[in-house]
């Protein structure tokens, strides 16, 4: 429903602002207003890639000027036309309004609610700006200026009742009409910005939960984790906004759709807030009951009002929400089933060890990088590969790429390397950890860093074996400057870097904060390099020169025979289509096509 709000807010905000062109030109074709609104929407969505912080700096002065203008105009109209409108602050008038009008006045609440919609979008920026900034802005600027603006329009309408349809623009003094129109149009894009940013945030959270097809997420700020840009969703939102703007006959239908979306978002938010108060904040039940009762009285009143207008445009957000719900549910179901298949079918170490050093196959020169989502164990794709092909590379590295909820992972902490099985198997695992801002800019660079850490692992493993009976070598001891600086490069020369390394058991990876180091002195390469180490390093170098192949699994999920028709449609068509159009792992990892090998599997659910 929030995604639907993100589609409808730009449409109604921009279209309403652009409608000011027609006020002084009543004979103008409505199509001109729609074209202007569409052009503004295209410009708005084209700015999204700059990020919320940069767009915020651009729009913040406009927003402030907008509120000051409507507040000032409202106060001027109250003073000029009828100061008695201030009596409207008495709640007695809402009772009289509803009691004398019956059903018609009750259903009009759906339209009246549009006077407060848009203010809730301010709180959609909680992930992008400090809470105190939003509280101050709403309390000192937004709320009083809105009250003044509506009071001014009410005072104007007392003397100009035939101007109800466009009271806002009609109530603006003629001398400042066009400056206010320009600011209003710019401010309409700002109101849209908050819901667009909120939509991006919801998509990102759905991605993290495995509830949405893989799309590209660009983080635009170093300071705030929530400031993101999703290109694919941005252009989809733009197309849907344009379709809504051009497809509806008038603003009233868009208003009905917008009101339905906002009321349902508020209602669901309140219900979720109750859970937070009970389970997280552990508030007293009386406070929870008081909050729930007061909130539901107001929100349910508006909900019942908008339900009468579902057939007048209110069906649009329901259709949008239903479509996204189906997509997210089917994707989550297929993703969970595929991951369960990989977890339950992963190969045991006993099976690997039973194959012997050659794995029962011909070991051809080269290095095979097998990509997997499993951080432990041997993936089923490997057994599937060697069962159907008579050869495997001389060196096999299982690569697991994990994205952590941090801005960046330092280079010295990025790779965790371990060995699987005995040395003569030449099988390793490498977990590459990236922050949300880190990118695979060049595959060659990723390969180089991976192999540098692989060679470093072999050297330090030899150091561990050579120093196992000495007090000079420690894994968990205190960190020293020499230990963090002195490392060996591929040619046996001393280099200086920072590196955390973990040497663990065969089937687990445990990050170690303190690196492997030497307490007293840093030995030279001749002292710590054994003949076995030199031979393995030479073997790894020769395999690297022979070529590197990236092996990726492509698990196809299909419905079992005899499944119900809706399951076959969901899995064989909808989920298959979503997998086809979403970003491939090879694109995410920037794997060159000339060295990519896809291994297909079919899994029935």
From TrEMBL:
Residues of the K+ potassium transporter C-terminal domain: 365-601
InterPro entries xrefs: K+_transporter (IPR003855), K_trans_C (IPR053952), K_trans_N (IPR053951)
Lineage: superkingdom: Eukaryota
Domain K+ potassium transporter integral membrane: 1-352
One GO cellular component term noted in the UniProt record for this chain: plasma membrane
Mode of membrane association: Multi-pass membrane protein
A molecular function (GO) term: potassium ion transmembrane transporter activity
A Pfam family assignment: K_trans_C
Localization (cell): Cell membrane; Membrane
Transmembrane segment boundaries: 30-50, 57-79, 106-124, 136-156, 176-203, 224-246, 258-280, 287-308, 314-331, 351-371, 391-409
Keywords, ordered alphabetically: Ion transport, Membrane, Potassium, Potassium transport, Transmembrane, Transmembrane helix, Transport
Function: Potassium transporter.
NCBIfam families with a match to the protein in the record: kup
Family to which the UniProt record says this protein belongs: Belongs to the HAK/KUP transporter (TC 2.A.72.3) family.
Protein name in UniProt: Potassium transporter
Origin species: Rubroshorea leprosula
């Amino acid at each position: 429903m929030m995604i639907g709000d993100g589609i409808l807010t730009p449409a109604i905000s921009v279209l309403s602002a652009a409608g000011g062109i027609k006020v002084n030109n009543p004979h103008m074709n409505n199509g001109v207003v729609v074209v202007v609104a569409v052009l503004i929407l295209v410009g708005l969505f084209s700015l999204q890639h700059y990020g919320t912080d940069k767009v915020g700096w651009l729009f913040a002065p406009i927003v402030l000027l907008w509120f000051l203008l409507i507040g000032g105009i409202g106060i001027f109209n109250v003073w000029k036309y009828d100061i008695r409108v201030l009596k409207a602050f008495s709640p007695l008038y809402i009772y009289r309004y509803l009691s004398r009008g019956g059903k018609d006045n009750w259903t009009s609440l759906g339209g009246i609610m549009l006077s407060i919609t848009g203010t809730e979008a301010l709180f959609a920026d909680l992930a992008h700006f400090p809470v105190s900034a939003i509280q101050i802005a709403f309390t000192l600027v937004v709320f009083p200026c809105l009250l003044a603006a509506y009071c001014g329009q009410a005072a104007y309408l007392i003397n100009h009742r035939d101007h109800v349809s466009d009271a806002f623009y009609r109530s603006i003094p003629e001398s400042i009409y066009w400056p206010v129109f320009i600011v209003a149009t710019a401010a309409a894009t700002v109101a849209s910005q908050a819901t667009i940013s909120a939509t991006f945030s919801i998509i990102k959270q759905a991605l993290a939960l495995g509830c949405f097809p893989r799309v590209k997420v660009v983080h635009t700020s170093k300071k705030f984790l929530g400031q993101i840009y999703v290109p694919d969703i941005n252009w989809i939102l733009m197309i849907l906004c344009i379709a809504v703007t051009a497809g509806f006959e008038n603003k009233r239908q868009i208003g009905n759709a917008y009101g339905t979306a906002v009321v349902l978002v508020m209602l669901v938010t309140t219900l979720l807030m109750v859970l937070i108060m009970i389970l997280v904040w552990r508030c007293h039940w009386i406070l929870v009951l008081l909050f729930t009762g007061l909130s539901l009285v107001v929100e349910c009143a508006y909900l019942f009002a908008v339900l009468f207008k579902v057939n007048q445009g209110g069906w649009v957000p329901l259709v949008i929400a239903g479509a996204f719900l189906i997509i997210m549910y089917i994707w989550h179901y297929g993703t969970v089933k595929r991951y369960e298949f990989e977890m339950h079918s992963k190969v045991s170490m006993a099976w690997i060890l039973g194959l012997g050093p050659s794995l029962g196959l011909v070991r051809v020169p080269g290095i095979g990088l097998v990509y997997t989502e499993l951080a432990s164990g041997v993936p089923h794709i490997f057994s599937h590969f060697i069962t159907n092909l008579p050869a495997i590379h001389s060196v096999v590295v299982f690569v697991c790429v994990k994205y952590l909820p941090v801005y960046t992972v330092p280079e010295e902490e990025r790779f965790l390397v371990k060995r699987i099985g005995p040395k003569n198997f030449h099988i390793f695992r490498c977990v590459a950890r990236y922050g949300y801002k880190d990118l695979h800019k060049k595959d060659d660079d990723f390969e180089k860093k991976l192999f540098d850490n692989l060679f470093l692992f072999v050297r330090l493993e030899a150091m561990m074996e050579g120093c196992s009976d000495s007090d000079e070598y420690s894994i968990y001891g205190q960190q020293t400057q020499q230990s963090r600086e002195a490392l060996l490069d591929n040619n046996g020369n001393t280099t200086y870097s920072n590196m955390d390394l973990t040497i663990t058991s065969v089937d687990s990876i445990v990050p170690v904060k303190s690196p492997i180091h030497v307490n007293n002195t840093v030995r030279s390469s001749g002292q710590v390099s054994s003949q076995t180490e030199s031979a393995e390093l030479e073997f790894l170098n020769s395999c690297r020169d022979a070529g590197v192949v990236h092996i990726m699994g492509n698990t196809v999920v299909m419905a079992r025979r005899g499944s119900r028709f809706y399951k076959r449609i969901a899995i064989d068509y909808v989920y298959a289509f979503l997998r086809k159009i979403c970003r491939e792992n090879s694109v995410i990892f920037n794997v060159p096509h000339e060295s990519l090998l896809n291994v297909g599997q079919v899994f029935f659910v």
